[in-house]
Design brief:
Layout (H helix, E strand, L loop, with lengths): L1 H16 L22 H5 L12 H9 L7 H5 L4 H21 L19
């Protein structure tokens, strides 16, 4: 984390030489779980974005269908049997949405705590 802080300070110092402007296309994206070790200077100088999880079964299903490759109609049409493949994909996304909803119940939902995410789909 200390090395990350040094890198970000170097970028800021370099930007100061160029009239406080980086290249218009320059972006530094950082993702992190909450951590006390994460440098506060980076948090203070950045823009924070969050991704709130869906709160219902329907919202989970819609969210799944908006991700790659399910959002591409060509993905379904490339199958040898598109009708069956669409039903299979729907069943899989429904199962995944149910898993996401059940985790809200903690130990009543599962014996072992596991955070199901979009990448599990």
């Amino acid at each position: 984390m200390h090395k990350l802080e040094q890198i970000c300070e170097h970028i800021e110092a370099k930007a100061g030489v160029l009239d406080n402007k980086n290249h218009p296309q320059f972006r530094l994206w950082l993702t992190s779980y909450p951590s006390e070790d994460f440098p506060s200077s980076i948090l203070q100088n950045g823009i924070k974005m969050t991704n709130e999880p869906p709160i219902s079964l329907k919202a989970n299903m819609i969210g799944s269908y908006k991700t790659e490759p399910l959002n591409d109609q060509l993905f379904f049409e490339q199958s040898k049997n598109p009708a069956v493949f669409k039903k299979l994909a729907f069943s899989l996304t429904m199962f995944h949405a149910i898993l996401l909803q059940r985790r809200n119940f903690g130990s009543l939902g599962f014996n072992i705590k596991y955070d199901f995410t979009v990448s599990d789909l």
